[in-house]
Amino acid sequence: MSAAREACDVAYSLAEEQDFQQVLNICGSDAFDGLDYMAATFHRWLQEPGRLVFVARMTNRVVALESALLVDGGQTVVFQGLRVAPDLRGRGIAGALQRHVTDYVRRHYPQVSAVRLSRGDRPSPQTLAKYRVIAKEAILCLCCEAADLGLFVAELSSRLPGRADPSPPAPVTLSQQQAETLLLSEHVVSNLLPGKTIINDWEPLRPVEANMEVLRRRGLTWIADREFEPAAISLCTTPYAVPYRHDALHFNINVFGRSLASVCAVFLAQLEALLQSLRGYLIFYTYVDPTVWPGLRQTCQNNSNVSLFKDYCQELVLETDL
Ligand SMILES: CC(C)(COP(=O)(O)OP(=O)(O)OC[C@H]1O[C@@H](n2cnc3c(N)ncnc32)[C@H](O)[C@@H]1OP(=O)(O)O)[C@@H](O)C(=O)NCCC(=O)NCCS
């Protein structure tokens, strides 16, 4: 059957709770390097205000999923979660689903003027030409047994340059209110946020009041190197179970700032804050400015059994007009 014919045989609808197992079946346990978040997010996504979750079906089988989240006070949609069943890839189904979602948003939400998304692959120049590149983050992917994380934090802390005399103040855990005040401040927006964008995991948001409600829903831990005019501010997601191993937990730390010492300090403070609650096998991704990545990578060399989960990878934030 031709690719065009196949895309025509697809029916689209909003996802429902009973699609859960079929949605999980789209991607096997090895997809996304074993870190698929769908089991942890599907039910929450269906309940989330401003989120639309679409599935594509062929003869009653769920073969693809895409989600759109209204952000920036309703002016932008963020696409997330795109996936197509492995046996049907390369036949235009993802593109057709994205067109369906875009048309749906145009019809039902005429105030939306832009689409934003994050990509972890390396899109071709032709693909990139369709978008504005808003930001690029480099990802340090580490893994270890939870039992080894305390040793790692102690080892790195003893080596941080800041431990010299006089030592700088310890990083501070921010209340949600403090974090929001900072995120909306001219200093953080202009000097720290990549492309003036808050990136929570793979979710890029403009630093506007309306998006603070989205962040509040995420249960993030916020840590900065100092409360006023910080050189680095970071968020950490709540750890969630992933298919990689029966006891595997994944979490993401996004650090905004270009001072290596400050980035390292808040990265370690985020790990320290999690130490007591973690069990099993940990795979944690830290997203930083690409100029900071080599230094962070070097700082993280250790004798505590924390290793690279995979080598350098990156997240591109792209935007286009609707
Ligand atoms: C990526 C994937 C969805 C592509 O599905 P497909 O049906 O083979 O794709 P198509 O034949 O429609 O052709 C590619 C189109 O898919 C979309 N696409 C491909 N990769 C994408 C990505 N990482 N993020 C967003 N859109 C993507 C684009 O519309 C692309 O067209 P473009 O390159 O001109 O922008 C599929 O390979 C898959 O499910 N991979 C595993 C999950 C995954 O990596 N998802 C993407 C990140 S969330």
| Pattern of helices and strands | HEHHEEEHEHEHEHHEEHEEEEHEHE
- Ligands and ions found: coenzyme A
SSE class? alpha+beta
Taking all residues together, what is the mean pLDDT? 94
Which stretches of 5+ consecutive residues score pLDDT under 50?
Answer: none
Quick structural overview:
This protein has helices at residues 3-8, 20-26, 38-47, 93-108, 125-128, 146-159, 176-183, 186-191, 209-216, 260-274, 293-299, and strands at 11-14, 51-58, 61-71, 76-84, 114-119, 132-145, 172-174, 198-200, 203-205, 221-224, 233-236, 240-241, 248-256, 281-288, 307-321. It is an alpha+beta fold and 322 residues long. The chain folds into two domains: 3-112, Gcn5-related N-acetyltransferase (GNAT) (Aminopeptidase); 135-321, Aminopeptidase, CATH 3.40.630.
Q: What can you tell me about this protein's structure?
A:
It is a single chain. This protein is α+β, with helices and mostly antiparallel strands and about 325 residues long. Helix content is about 30%, strand content about 30%. The protein is built from eleven helices and 15 strands. The strands form two sheets. Strands 1, 2, 3, 4, 5, 6, 7, 10, 11, 12, 13, 14 and 15 form a 13-stranded mixed sheet that branches. Strand 4 (about 75-85), helix 4 and strand 5 form a beta-alpha-beta unit. The model has no long low-confidence stretch (mean pLDDT about 95). The site of coenzyme A has 17 residues, from strand 4, helix 4 and strand 5. Coenzyme A binds near residues 82, 83, 89 and 93.
